[in-house]
Amino acid sequence: MDNDEDRDAPAAPNGVSLGPLPGFIGYALRRAQLVIFDDFIRTLETVDLRPAYFSTLIIIDENPGLNQSEVSAALGVQRTNFVTMVDHLEKRNLIERRPSKKDRRSYALHLTEEGRTLLDKARQLQAEHEARFARKLGPNGREQLLPLLWKLVE
């Protein structure tokens, strides 16, 4: 890594040397993820929603009738952890479980009217959050960053 790349990396607090860490893709991604998630958590606090619950509501809204296994797989969440999330969202009357038309042994997930109203508010907050970080990236930064990140997922 040449020194030009080092200039864009933030300095560590108290003059602590980060050595080669700023040049590691994983380190930079993790630091960026922490900053972005911290902002997103604070943003969604106004509607009492966590990022994982927001993602769950999005998937259910876009795909009404999926069962818990399908939603948890789409999000990459372990099924055991997902059951707790579904229980929480159901207790808040944001989603409901209905008998599945495809499989009588499972339940289909649907947003309630309350869930749809909350998700609409949360989507607006997410758009503001996204705009804050797009501004930080500058013109076309978001459009350049997203395809690069998705290449890492392939």
UniProtKB/TrEMBL annotation:
InterPro entries: HTH_MarR-typ, MarR/SlyA-like, WH-like_DNA-bd_sf, WH_DNA-bd_sf. Pfam families: MarR. Residues 22-154 form the HTH marR-type domain. SMART domains: HTH_MARR. PANTHER family: MARR FAMILY REGULATORY PROTEIN, TRANSCRIPTIONAL REGULATOR, MARR FAMILY. This is MarR family transcriptional regulator. It comes from Chelativorans salis. The lineage of its organism: Bacteria, Pseudomonadati, Pseudomonadota, Alphaproteobacteria, Hyphomicrobiales.
